[in-house]
Design a protein that fits this description.
alpha/beta; Purple Acid Phosphatase, chain A, domain 2; globular; 6-stranded mixed sheet; 6 helices
Length: 270
């Protein structure tokens, strides 16, 4: 199976890049299933129902969220009506929506998608991600009940993401990090057959400070004082993420490639 995961969509620039480029990528690369992290698609904080619909209509089969899952309050209700949106399994015991779902890809093949939040350096003390993701994936055995498993680890610390990758090695087709908006160069296949990348990066304008217009973040770093709200940068966005090929029989990754399409980053693609 050919799978594509795209990192945090950042504001209008990221949405526009998804709308304009994802349909072509699906066709040109023969993609079977696409997951997009929509965590920051609406003004850089959260995701509105209208923007969620845009990502899905552009070709995303599933949209994951993150620690800003419900910063746009309309998502509290919308997530209950749209099964293609996933929030973290350990966000809250009373959070609406689901943290793991099984989807149908091309030729009837089953793909489980799950998301988990890290604990290290995060603003809120979320529940243990290791036990949370283990329980979420237990009914969805790789190469058995499902042909592929994708896990979005929404976390700050690279060490925690790596530990979760090794914890899930052999139980997931792909474990990929999100949240920092900075793509890492460590796309690899772990010993047990799990494709891994510490951070997918963002789908946004990289002439920025992690997707935000540079002026206000720089002012706060230099002076320690804020003057204005952060606003997403609106230059041409780069689509960043990971492309993975898997063996349908085992569900294990056979190939993983970092993806950079458009914008300022050095291009890379399958």
């Amino acid at each position: 199976m050919k799978l594509l995961f795209l990192g945090d969509v950042m504001g209008r620039a990221g949405r526009t890049a998804i709308r304009d480029r994802l349909p072509g990528l699906r066709a040109d690369w023969g993609l079977d299933f696409v997951v997009v992290n929509g965590e920051n698609a609406s003004s850089g904080i959260g995701l509105t129902p209208d923007h969620a619909k845009l990502l899905l209509e552009a070709g995303a089969d599933c949209v994951t969220l993150g620690d800003h899952a419900f910063d746009q309050k309309d998502m509290l209700r919308f997530i209950e009506t749209e099964p293609r949106i996933i929030r973290p399994v350990n966000f809250s015991k009373v959070a609406p929506g689901q943290g793991v779902r099984v989807f149908t890809a091309t030729r009837g093949r089953k793909v489980a998608v799950a998301q988990v939040l890290g604990q290290v350096f995060m603003k809120r003390p979320f529940d243990d991600p290791f036990s949370g993701i283990e329980a979420a994936l237990k009914p969805h055995s790789l190469g058995g009940a499902v042909q592929a498993v994708l896990v979005d680890v929404h976390a700050e610390a690279t060490s925690e993401k790596m530990a979760l990758g090794h914890w899930l090695d052999g139980r997931a087709s792909l474990v990929v990090g999100t949240h920092t908006h900075v793509p890492t160069g460590d796309a690899m296949i772990l010993p047990g057959g799990t494709g891994y990348m510490t951070d997918a990066g963002m789908c946004g304008d990289y002439n920025s400070v992690i997707g935000m217009d540079k002026a206000e973040p720089m002012r706060r770093f230099i002076t320690g004082m804020g003057r204005e709200r952060f606003t997403p940068a609106e230059g041409e966005a780069t689509l960043s993420g990971a492309y993975v090929e898997t063996d349908d029989r085992t569900g294990r990754a056979t190939r993983i490639v970092a993806v950079r399409v458009g914008g300022r980053l050095q291009p890379s693609a399958p």
